[in-house]
TrEMBL record:
Pfam families given in the database record: DUF1699
Organism, scientific name: Methanosarcina mazei (Methanosarcina frisia)
Listed name of the protein: Ribosomal protein S6
Superkingdom of the organism of origin: Archaea
């Protein structure tokens, strides 16, 4: 799974329409979030650092939710934006989540094992556990989404 990392608001207009997962590494304004939804109509998940997440208004959280966007608190640890615009959650992590789910593990156990495997936020792991990103071929953005 690829998460597009955006380090400043000037990058939002240049994002691909097909982006499904975005991490905003800056504190977005309401205008930035409206622009993001308009620029990326296929977005399913928006990750924000804890400080930015906690500063969002109830209105914006409701707006994102009603737009079908799952808001996740977390970071992209170890990512170097100047080398790559995407933070990649490797397929082996997604496979491990599926494997643990099939084994009947609790959400807490899955979060514990996956965070030991790779530094990913608990919110992101929960989202992956309950989302379409665990389906085959999910590492590439959909090109013809209606």
């Amino acid at each position: 799974m690829r998460i597009r990392v955006v380090t400043n608001r000037d990058e939002i207009p240049s994002l691909e329409q097909e982006e499904r997962a975005v991490h905003l590494a800056f504190r977005p304004s309401d205008k930035d979030l409206f622009s993001l939804v308009k620029t990326c109509p296929s977005i399913e998940i928006l990750q924000l650092p804890a400080s930015s997440y906690d500063g969002l208004s109830k209105f914006i959280k409701m707006y994102l939710s009603s737009s079908g966007i799952h808001l996740v608190k977390g970071d992209v640890s170890g990512h170097w934006h100047d080398l790559n615009n995407y933070f990649v959650i490797p397929s082996y992590v997604l496979e491990k989540i599926k494997e643990l789910e099939v084994q009947g593990r609790t959400e807490e156990e899955i979060i514990g094992e996956v965070t030991n495997l790779r530094k990913i936020s608990p919110d992101m792991i929960l989202h992956l556990l309950h989302s379409s990103f665990l389906s085959p071929g999910s590492e590439r953005p959909e090109m013809n989404r209606v």
